[in-house]
Structures are given as C-alpha cells and as structure tokens.
Amino acid sequence: MNGAFYAQLAIWSDILSAVIFLAVLVWLWVKYLTPASMASRDRKNAELLEAEGKRDAAKAEVEAARRELEVAGSDAAAIQARAERDAIRTRERIVSDAAVEGDRVVRNAEGELGRGRLAARERLRDELLARALEIARESAKKLGEGPDRRLMGEVIDSLERGNA
Fold first, then answer.
1. Is this structure's pTM higher than 0.90?
2. What φ, ψ does residue 61 adopt, rounded to 5°?
3. Handedness of CA 32, 33, 38, 44 (dihedral sign)
C-alpha cells in the first residue's frame, strides 16, 4: 500500500483517538465531576437557605423585640400616669383628712375653752362670793348688837347656804 494510505490512516487514527479521548473525557466529566459539582452546588444552596432562614428568624426576633419594647414603653407610661393619679388622690385624701382632723381639733379646743371659761367663772364667782362673805362678816363684827347685825347675819347665812 502506499504512503498516502498510511498517512490517511495516521490522520484518521489521530481523529479517532481524539474523539475517543473526548468521549472518555465527557464520560469522566459526567460520571465524576458533575455529581461533585452538583453536590457542591446543593450544599452551597442549602447553606444559603439556612443563612436566609437564620436571617429571617433574626429579623423576626428583632421585630418582636421592638414590639415588646413599644409595649413596655406604653406600659411604663401607663404605670407613670396611674402613679401620678394615685399620688394626686392620696394627696387630696391626706389634705381632706388633715382638714377634718383640724376641724375636729378646733371644735374640741373651742369646747375646752368654753368649759375652761365656765370653770373660771365658777371659781371667780366662788372667790368673789367668799371674799364678799368675808367682807360682810368683818362688817357685821363692826356693827353693834341690833337689828342690823341680826339682818346681816341672816344674809350671810343665806349666802353661805346658797354657796354650799
């Protein structure tokens, strides 16, 4: 056979070996590299989904914390308002109780003052009567025996009986 045939055979042999090489290379790619690449892609997608889930959970927690903070703020404002109202009511009750107690003390003092005045009048009357009787007795001693002394004695006796 001639040299051209061998040259043609060499060319077709190179082409066939290249095709076989490419077929083996594609088969190896599909058999080993594609599953590894797919597994890596799936793993990365799973990691991304997990990260997104964590991010969404964190956002939900942040939002819940914000709502709780708003509720706590409104609760604090309500507590402060209630405390202010309670303080006002307590102050008004204390002032009212103090006014009532003050009025009661004033009435008691007025009663004591009235009783003190009556007692002082009684003592003064008794002292004045005792002094008047003493003066009358001294005057009766200066009178001689007679109707004036007897009359003075009767007046002194009646005053003493009225005083006792």
1. no
2. -65, -40
3. positive
